[in-house]
Amino acid sequence: MENAFIYLDHAATTPVHPKVLEAMLPYFTERYGNPSSIYSIAREARRGLDEARDTVAGILGARATEVIFTGGGSEADNLAIKGVAYAQRKKGNHMITSAIEHHAVLHTCEFLEKHFGFEVTYLPVDRYGIVDLEALERAIRPTTVLVTIMMANNEVGTVEPIQEISRIVKPRGIPFHTDAVQAVGSLDVNVDRLGVDMLSMSAHKFYGPKGVGALYVRRGTPLVPLIQGGGQERQRRAGTENVPGIVGLAEALKLSYDELESRNEHVRRLRDKLIAGVTRIPRSFLTGHPVQRLPNSASFCFEFVEGESILLSLDMLGVGASSGSACTSGSLEPSHVLSAMGIPVEVAHGSLRLSTGIDNTEEQMDFVIDHLPAIVDRLRAMSPLAGKP
């Protein structure tokens, strides 16, 4: 087992599924035309693009005209938030989000605050990472132009009550966006059942290629494009479409939902095995909601240990894991998610995220469970705080 790499960071990215790669390849080598042109190979590219859009729309329960392909989840979030904010500046300048959003949302809101005078309310969460619904109701103003709350947290895996949030927001006529990047491929994302006006996704989170995503925008939602220069995506996102990537996104999405039950059962069983084994380590605990969480996500904190040291030790054993969001892995700051959940800074520094995938095995989980206690013991033996009460 020591010679085989064990990948347990599927919340950061996933390998491209062989069937996805197979679907993409012809659009690199044979159907490489520009889908905006009129000759035969261009029409083949257009056909692939249109079929991909239909596939995505079908899984979302949306119209094909409501799907905008983007360069990834971060762009989709930016387009949703800035697009609606710019479109409604005459109506108001207030937005609502949560304190535990991905930085693609938080930094976009902060940008609008700093450069365009918007006001943003950052809703608190409880110790499990669930958004405070009463705080949401209190935060809504006549000038509120957008509510954006993630569907599932990328660090701790907590699933937010999106339908309940929609029931609060929709009667007020406020556009509601959800960053579903971590949820798509694992949870039901039918937009009418969720009650959302916009939904972001990124292909590489569900065994598709990197660098391609999509934003669902309900018909009638005010939206100003961010990228000008062409009429692509119904004039909402200029630039020649990444046809191979878009075809890959659609194929990965279709596979995810065709196999949803069996995939979720598999990754959940492995996740639960990890939770049971890891939490036997003294002074360790699970973070996030114990039940209302993504099927493949397990996140922990260990007292008197630095999470980065755990990661380096696991890597030396051939195990890939994370201490939180991959997008902030170079930061020495404690996780804003764990801080918002009330976890002390010194404990938050000892975080570990393990996220299972469809190719992981029971044997791999046993390997991690067998080796992690010794890693934690060794690191604690070097900690000046470990012996203190």
How is this structure best summarized?
With 389 residues, the chain is of the alpha/beta class. It is built from 15 helices and twelve strands.
Question: How is the secondary structure organized here?
Answer:
Blueprint: E1 6-7, H1 18-24, H2 26-29, H3 40-60, E2 67-70, H4 73-87, E3 94-98, H5 103-116, E4 119-123, H6 133-139, E5 144-148, H7 162-169, E6 176-179, H8 191-194, E7 198-202, E8 213-217, H9 232-235, H10 243-258, H11 260-278, E9 284-287, E10 297-302, H12 307-316, E11 319-320, H13 336-340, H14 345-348, E12 351-355, H15 362-381
Would you mind describing this structure in some detail?
With 389 residues, the protein is of the alpha/beta class. The protein is built from 15 helices and twelve strands. Strands 2-8-7-6-5-3-4 form a seven-stranded mixed β-sheet, with helices on both faces. Strands 9-10-12 form a three-stranded antiparallel β-sheet. Strand 6 (176-179), helix 8 and strand 7 form a beta-alpha-beta unit. Helix 3 runs parallel beside helix 10 and helix 12 packs across helix 15 (362-381). The mean pLDDT is 95.
Radius of gyration over C-alpha positions, nearest whole angstrom:
22 Å
Walk across the major sheet and give the strand order.
2-8-7-6-5-3-4
What share of residues is helical? 40-55%
Low-confidence stretches: none
**CA-to-CA gap between the ends?**
38 Å
Percentage of residues in DSSP E strands = 5-15%
Please give the number of β-strands: 12
